[in-house]
Specification:
Number of helices: 9
Bound molecules: iron/sulfur cluster
Shape: globular
Largest sheet: 9 strands, mixed
Number of domains: 1
Structural class: alpha/beta
Strand order of the largest sheet: 3-1-2-4-5-6-7-8-9
Number of strands: 9
Helix content: 25-40%
CATH architecture: Alpha-Beta Barrel
Distance between the termini: 41 Å
Radius of gyration: 17 Å
Order of helices and strands: EEEHHEHEHEHHEHEHHE
CATH superfamily: Aldolase class I
CATH topology: TIM Barrel
């Protein structure tokens, strides 16, 4: 049976989720509860969505933008796209048939055979590493760190190119011991081509109010651009890969 995707939203000219201009699809549902999340409206897998589409239907929509994304590609993100692994795999399979570059933006929280099957048709993984601090991970994201580690280990073992994404939150993940721990951890993986250091922002706060949820990082302001640049420079020196 053809899997139907539950799609929160799409962005036809994405420029921040992988190389070049991309057709970005946000899938509904996420098992994590990161304190800094600016998309809490993607959490509930059963929430009403804008689109329900088959992979073929999403491909047809994608191909309307073919001339723009020719040198970029497509990205699946969320929420957590691997909660809808069968749909994601088939969409990427069709995209590869159509000659498009595929990027999967994931938290690595879903470590199942079905989820790993999506990698068969994935050119690049954008892997969020929230923190390398095991003890802190659960309270920070709502989940243990284990699957995220296993996911990166798997990517390393199959030689899949990876871009790491890490959000810097003032007082939580921008403190020296956690940054040191993260850099040390990442230095063990040759599959990592690039690291993105993303300063925390508060643009999603209004969504919590709309959903009737308490904002967990109340009182913490945005990360400074200067701090983010300092961290990027330190990671560049330490890891020897592109850091942006
Ligand atoms: S994994 Fe992403 S979508 Fe899910 S809670 Fe964390 S930041 Fe939000």
């Amino acid at each position: 049976m053809t899997p139907t995707g539950r799609i929160h939203s799409v962005e036809s000219f994405g420029t921040v989720d992988g190389p070049g201009i991309r057709f970005v699809t946000f899938l509904q549902g996420c098992p994590m509860r990161c304190l800094f999340c600016h998309n809490p409206d993607t959490w509930n897998p059963a929430a009403p969505v804008r689109y329900e589409m088959t992979p073929q239907e999403l491909l047809s929509e994608t191909l309307r933008y073919r001339s723009f994304i020719r040198k970029g590609g497509v990205t699946l993100t969320g929420g957590e796209p691997l909660l809808q692994a069968a749909f994601a795999r088939e969409y990427f399979r069709l995209c590869k048939e159509a000659g498009l570059h595929t990027a999967l933006d994931t938290s690595g929280a879903v470590f199942t055979e079905e989820a790993l099957g999506v990698l068969d048709f994935t050119d690049l993984v954008l892997l969020d590493v929230k923190t390398a601090d095991d003890a802190f991970h659960k309270s920070y994201t709502g989940m243990e760190r284990k699957n995220n580690r296993l996911f990166l280990d798997h990517l390393q073992s199959v030689g899949k190119p990876v871009w790491i994404r890490h959000v810097l939150v003032p007082g939580l993940t921008d403190i020296p011991e956690r940054l040191e721990g993260l850099a040390g951890y990442l230095s063990g993986y040759s599959c990592i081509e690039r690291v993105e250091i993303l300063p925390y922002h508060t643009m999603g706060v209004y969504k919590y109010a709309e959903l009737g949820l308490r904002y967990p990082l109340e009182g913490i302001g945005p990360e400074s651009a200067l701090k983010a640049e300092e961290v990027r420079e330190a990671f560049r020196k330490r890891l020897g890969v592109e850091v942006v």
